[in-house]
Amino acid sequence: MNSLNTEAFTLFGQHILWSDMIGNILGLIALALGWRRNLWSWPVQFASGLILFGAFYGHLTGSAGKQVVVMLVALYGWWQWNRNKGASGDGHIVPRFASWRERGALVGAAAVGTVAVALLFKAYPSLSWDPWPDAYIFVGTVVAMYAQARGMVEFWIAWLLVDLVGVPLNFANGYAFSGFVYVIYGALVLWGMRDWWLRSRESARPVMEGAPA
To answer: Could you tell me if 185 and 28 are in contact, meaning their C-beta atoms sit under 8 angstroms apart?
Structure first.
């Protein structure tokens, strides 16, 4: 893993590490596979988390810890999508909108989790140099991945909200490639949200009696 933490190249005055570049490219591929509702989104996300753990470990302990949680949620997502992949008839999960109760639970978990993790980071400064935004991204990522695992369209909105803070934070930390990738994430999120939105409406549309399914 030490060789992955060497510099790959310099871009706009920013030093790009191999681990930062490879991990984020895999994360980008995982998001694209998630858009296509492809089960391999989760193993790729796990690999991305593993490599980024190596990139952050020893420098940004809080971000490294986030990648551990990302890998655990990726395992949960793999199990969840495997269990429900036949629901649509095409071997993929069926996207759906969350209920208002589920939305409230997601927002509540994000708010409480962000405060709790930020206070933990403040109590142990070595975990993060900027506790509040780091905690926001940490918890927001977990919430987004959980919603994705459950097939909720709202997971795209959660990713978009994470991107709004993730881009400037990564540039500030010297992870320029992560910052650029987060910008691309934003574009993919908008396209993916549109696709899942339309698919969820189709799956919720009632079939007329006597009409072909």
So the answer is: yes
